[in-house]
Amino acid sequence: MYFSESHYTLSDLADRGWTPSAIRDFLSGGPDMTTENPFCHFGSRVQLYFCARVETMEARKDFQAWKAEQDKRSAAARVATLAQLGVRKQKHLEWARTVEVEVFEVSWETLKEAANSKNKGHLLYARGEHTDWEWLLSEASGKPGASAAKQIIRSRVLRALASKFPKLEAAARRQALAWFDRKGEVPEDEVAAWAGVGYQKAQIKQ
Length: 206
Fold this sequence. Notes:
Blueprint: E1 7-9, H1 10-15, H2 20-26, E2 33-35, E3 46-50, H3 51-58, H4 61-98, H5 108-117, H6 122-129, H7 133-140, H8 146-164, H9 169-182, H10 188-195
Antiparallel strand pairs: 1-3, 2-3
């Protein structure tokens, strides 16, 4: 309580589980006092409620019955939200597994010469200049399951490059292993996909 040890602010009440409607219904008559907002002199005055008044109300059976029902609704809402997030996550992961990963047409010799001229590694150059790598990772971000979705995108792009340019396979496998080891959630289907190019599940840190 920033303002007084003897008063609760609206923010304090919210932390104790009070809603605006509960404040209106159980603390009718409004705040016990108001004071100037120290953070914004031009803002609304801060409403203060005596702690004893609030705590007496919280001990009443009608308030406790309301609070129990409110907690039940909040818990149900959290369950529903988590379920919805789970559905959205699965949809996002399905997008990551099925979105087109295109390797732009270029010969190995041309790619190698261009990478060398820019003093870049062949895999790094191919990934940055001949795939939709950046766009795909951008699309994978900011949604439920983003960490796993980005792992899938990274893995699929590397596998596409390894398939298109066999000379990149070893480097792509090393990079996949490094990302799988340090960048969070590792989808099992991508682990299995790398088994076909020498990637072993046992290599992943559990």
